[in-house]
Amino acid sequence: MSETVPPLVQARGLSKKYGSRIALDHVNFSVEAGRIVGLIGPNGAGKTSALRAILGLTCYEGDLSVLGREPFGNRAALMLEATFIADIAVLPGWLRVDQAVDFLDGVHPQFRRERALAMLAKMQIAGRRRIRELSKGMKTLVHLALTMAIDAKLLVLDEPTLGLDILARRGFYDALVNDYMDATRSILITTHQVEEVENLLTDILFIDKGRIVLDCSLEQIAARYAAVAVSEEHVAAARAENPFYERPMPGKKVLYFEHPDFQRLASFGEVLTPSVSDLFVAKLS
Amino acid sequence: MNTYIWLVRREFWEYRAIWMCPAVIVCALMLAALFGRVEVAELGSPEGNSGMAGMALFAFGMIFFFVMTIYSSWYLLDCLNADRKDRSVLFWKSLPISDTAMVLAKLFTGLVAIPIVYFTAADLSALLMAFIISLRSHSSLGSALWQPDLWLQLQALWLYVIASIAIWYLPLAGWLMLISAWARRAVMLWSIMPPLAVVLAERLFLGTHVVEDLLRNRLAGYLAVAFHHQQGAGWVRTPLGGAGSIATPISVWRLLDPIGFFSSPATWIGVFVGAALVCGAVQLRLRSTEL
């Protein structure tokens, strides 16, 4: 699939500077169709800069193509096929839910009014309510319902669940996976709460200090990385295999390896595939 | 086009005062007309009566015009700032609407749509007032209010005013929008302080007042450019009850000066400067996504 269909997002040497501070330093990555890519990094790593560049919200240096277009200066055209939720509570407080639906229906050719109304009905949100009267979780769900009613090829989510309680966060991601995702769409999502998205991602991009430190699919993780819990007496021998990270546990150490010899590792203990959050900590420490 | 209609409608949703404010004034005027004391002097000549009636209707219009000027300026100063303050700008930017369209829709709202709302409200209240007053006063002033020609003149005056202020005050609107798109906070201060500082600096260091004159001519020069201001032929002087008298034109047609307005270089220089300032606001809008 990826050989014939050009990637939805392709960045080559993407850079962004704010004064003398470098937010993105010659970054390369791509997002293919039908994938859910997590752009993961600590605060200030350059996640938001990358998303802003992709969405045409900011200028940048380097080559960037989103849905075949250069995003900056073409934002309006781009938003016919892509859409985003930038943060919580970005719907204006004065807007009524039914006004939001009417407005989107009026200006967005890809907006599916029936779908939006069905989702809002499911969430039991009355149309006459103003956004400012809703709870934080409700606001986000309304925003998600409106966004999911747009037939977009690319959906970008920037810390979409920041400040929400666990129930609202779970509701958000359940709706996203069950009601929205299909093979024709792609989602690019940034978060620093790795645990909450790792089960839905197909690809991960780790970013730190403006550079990509890891770019691989979840299937590749099992082939590329291994974590082994090694008891104290085998630690010295295991260290000879070049672990890139160690984590102490009671009575043993967990060692992380990249491109290891899996058979040799098996002699030190049970070989596991590290979780995305473990890998995140290991890669960024 | 369809998008622009939705964008202007959106402004009416956000700024409900656009129609609530004139509605309140209409209601207040109605209450005054219904329950206030009507003491209108019976004037001698029919010309005098007609002039008075015209002035009365014009005075209602001026109330609306005055409030509209203040509200519209405030709107233009707030319109590109409010959605950055509540961060909803990112929601609007997630829609297939260009920044140029968003800025132009707001400019249109502030410079044309809001005046039209006030113009309609002024007309409506003048109509109701004339009706109430003619019922209550039983004077010849009452009948003087019901002249088709007078109403026609009033409509022409309002339409001319709407069109000409939109053109004349374009640089002011552009400046307010530029500040609105640029400033993080204290938009009011930022809109006033820089010009004031330039004026004071010029006085202090150069001893001249070029900028001051420029600003004054723009802000206060509208009437002089858009209207014939010499009194004389075609004006009637009506003595009032006291010592004074009031001068009114026989016809509004003698007042309007569209040829003078559209042939004045000041008009077109203003349009040019205003367009440049609006372009600046679009550029800022394109780049700034948050406060």
Protein described:
The complex is a heterodimer of chains A (285) and B (291). Chain A is of the alpha/beta class and 285 residues long. Chain A is 32% helix and 28% strand. Chain A is built from eleven helices and 13 strands. Chain A has helices spanning 47-54, 75-78, 97-107, 113-122, 136-148, 166-180, 194-197, 218-224, 235-239, 262-266, 276-284; strands spanning 9-18, 21-31, 36-40, 61-66, 82-85, 154-158, 186-191, 203-208, 211-217, 225-231, 245-249, 252-258, 271-272. Chain A has a six-stranded mixed sheet with strand order 5-6-7-3-8-9, sandwiched between helices. In chain A, helix 4 runs antiparallel to helix 5 (136-148) and helix 5 (136-148) runs parallel beside helix 6. The model of chain A has no long low-confidence stretch (mean pLDDT 86). Chain B has 291 residues and is mainly alpha-helical. Chain B is built from 14 helices and two strands; from the N terminus they run ααααααααααααββαα. Chain B has helices at 2-14, 17-35, 46-78, 82-85, 89-93, 99-137, 140-145, 148-168, 170-182, 187-206, 210-220, 222-226, 258-263, 265-287; strands at residues 235-239, 245-249. In chain B, strand 1 and strand 2 form a beta hairpin. The radius of gyration of chain B is 22 Å and the shape is globular. Chain B starts with a helix and ends with a helix. Chains A and B meet through helix 2, strand 5 and helix 3 of A and helix 1 and helix 5 of B.
Name the features:
heterodimer; A: 285 residues; six-stranded mixed beta sheet; four-stranded antiparallel beta sheet; 11 helices; 32% helix; globular; B: 291 residues
